[in-house]
Amino acid sequence: MNYKGLGLKVGLEIHFQLDVDRKLFCNCSSIMKEKEPIAIVKRKLHPVASELGEVDIAAQFEYLRNRNFFYEVFKNESCLVELDEEPPHNPNEEALKVALQIAKLFNCKIPEYIFVMRKTVIDGSNTSGFQRTMIVGFDGYFEFKGKKISITQICLEEDAAAIDKEENGNVYYKLNRLGIPLVEIDTGVIEGLEPKEIEEVAYQIFLISSSTGKIRRQIGAIRQDVNVSISGGERVEIKGVQKLSLISKVIEKEVERQSELIKKGEKVQKETRAAKEDGSTEFMRPLPGAERMYPETDVKPIKTENILKDLEVPEPLNKIIERYEKGYKLSKSLIESLLKTEYFFFFENVAKAFPKIEPSIIANILSATLKEIERKEKVEIKLSEERLLEFFDALNEGFVFKEAAYDILKKMNEGESVEEAVKELGLIPLTKEEILKIIEETKKEVSDKKKLIGIVLSKIRGRANISEVIKIIESLG
Length: 477
What we know:
The chain is α+β, with helices and mostly antiparallel strands. It has helices at residues 57-64, 93-105, 195-210, 247-263, 305-309, 317-326, 332-339, 344-353, 359-377, 385-396, 405-413, 418-425, 432-443, 449-460, 466-475; strands at 9-17, 39-43, 68-73, 113-114, 116-120, 130-144, 147-158, 162-167, 170-174, 181-187, 190-191, 222-229, 236-241, 271-275, 281-286, 293-295, 302-303.
């Protein structure tokens, strides 16, 4: 399809949850580990006029749906602020600094004062009927294939409550997600690029933001909204694209939808649509306008001068990736696997601390072995960085071997020390004399060297360095 000829225009709104301990406007935990609510509160929401004296059309639409909202309250993860029964506290300072770092990474101008605003949202995802948001950077850009992609603004805002279920006009929301610090990055209009290239732009935004080491990566923590229009059509906002890999398909299908309407002589409506897993969309509500914004009266303006004095801008992620590839000789696929974990930055700490271990072995354990334990054992990995360093220290000193990584880390995840795991699994390292004895005994059974090596390695698995054992066999002739 000739997207350039169709006049394709796309704008991206990329949302990242920040990996900080507490919420944006209170001291509640942002970990979202609680499973059972301790209370449920029922509410109805209605729209109010903005400073312009007008009611937002999207808010009016949601109000007319006449739904009841039930909010599930979780111990330590929601409080009176989330229930809109207590004014917001001052913004989370760590979250604000991370948001400003991201703004700097995108070459944004920083406002002298940051003002918290209220954005009318009455679909039930906010108990108050509005979302608190603040612009931390504007008029930025980054380079993509020799082209400047403009960043119109970067906002720090509170994430919405997560929908649990909906039945017969009753909607249930979980309050433990409401208030988690969320950064929204908005691009300007992107023209002249194919849908796949726009998907790459979104990925670059993710990589640049990840330079802070404070972007959450689990499902639901990263969400994309895509604005699409073609010549003769209208801007349509597509919300809730959960996967980066789905962006191009969403754009392609929206272009097809608008093209079909234009061919039939029908008008393309300005509206908000919800993304489905196959890339198609469905109508949500009319497109909101400027009428939904008004100032937050419970939070003072924040002067940025003092914060910026001590703000360190992190090393851009593309430079780190280049170092991993050239300096540590990691393959691109291994780097991509690391990026999908929470251990991407931790990898370099381990590689520097334990130079005897091949970097690729460290990367594989962090990106594949731990994930394999989670998947096969159906458990959550609870190992802290300190515990993982204990394992890599033992690997570096030859007390454990890479072939036993799965079994030992599994036991460590259950609370055992390296020593306890090694003893329980019978993986105490073999001496050279013990290895020679196993080789000699196996030689009595097998004469073929290839078979000999295979059998010996199966006998000593996890108790000796494989390459050293092979060298010993080879030296014996």
